[in-house]
Amino acid sequence: MTSFDSRRFRDALGWFATGVTIITADRPGDEPVGFTANSFSSVSLDPPLILFNLDRTAQCLPVFETAKYFAVNVLSEAQQELSNRFAASVEDRFRDVPFTRGEGGAPLLPDALAIFECAAHAVHDGGDHRIFLGRVLRFRARDEGSPLLYCRGRYRKLGPPLGWVDDAVLEAELEDAALHELDSQISL
After folding, report:
1. What pTM did the predictor assign?
2. What is the domain extent for residue 112?
3. In-domain check, residue 1
4. Distances 97 to 26, 32, 107, 148, 160 between C-alpha atoms, Å
5. How far apart are CA 151 and CA 154, in angstroms?
6. How far is CA 80 from the centre of its chain?
7. Cα(155)–Cα(137) distance, integer angstroms
8. Is the Cβ–Cβ distance between 32 and 107 less than 8 Å?
9. How high is the pLDDT of residue 183?
10. What is the pLDDT at residue 167?
11. CB of 70 closer than 8 Å to CB of 23
12. CB contact at 8 A, 57 and 38
């Protein structure tokens, strides 16, 4: 049996493109804390649950393990510099960063594409990470935007800004696809 190659495993996982978030909470003493994460996912619609993972060696781990509330700020591609700042070891990540306070004092970034305000629901072991589940209490999302993406160790761009799916356009695309399918079946 060959040994497990952690670097190759990480490289393989890197093919899974993700969005980029900044997860925030309030430290005792009204001090904001946050970090960049791409390990964010929906878990359940009923009840509304989300999750994120945090490395066991992260300095902010004790804050999140005891926080009753936290927020997930989904970044736009215009917020790449902010993502870098919250991913680095910076003394005061929030210096000169505008934010408002959400549920339980968790910082909300006003230019985020979506914000999920959560109550801590559960924390689980996950190898070298901790898995945090949050119950979504409130959320808001923009109608349009370009999300910040991460894939293969780099930021990526999706293309033109996305918006709500227009039902008429969707129906026309489905109708065209059905006609194309029928056309290919009728070939002489």
Report:
1. 0.83
2. 6-185
3. no
4. 15, 11, 10, 18, 27
5. 6
6. 13
7. 30
8. yes
9. 57
10. 62
11. yes
12. no
Rounded to whole angstroms, the Cα distance separating 17 from 38 reads 9
Query: What is the sign of the dihedral through the CA atoms of 172, 157, 107 and 65?
Result: positive
Tell me the residue type at 183: D
CA distance 188 to 185: 9
Cis peptide bond N-terminal to 47, omega within 30: yes
Q: Does residue 146 contact residue 76 with C-beta atoms inside 8 Å?
A: yes
Q: Looking at the chain, how many residues does it have?
A: 188
CATH number of the CATH domain containing 132: 2.30.110.10
In a domain, 34, yes or no: yes
Point out the residues of the chain with pLDDT beneath 50. Answer: 1, 188
DSSP β-bridge partners for residue 124: 131
Tell me whether the omega of the peptide bond preceding residue 28 falls within 30 degrees of 0, making it cis: no
- How far apart, in whole angstroms, are the C-alpha atoms of residue 142 and residue 50? 19
Buried residues in 13-34 as b, exposed as e (16+ CB within 10 A): eeeeebbbbbbbbbeeeeebbb
Distance of CA 47 to the CA centre of its chain: 19
Residue that has been written with the tokens 């370009």 in this structure: 146
What span, in angstroms and rounded, lies between the C-alpha atoms of 116 and 106? 10
Name the domain count of the chain.
Answer: 1
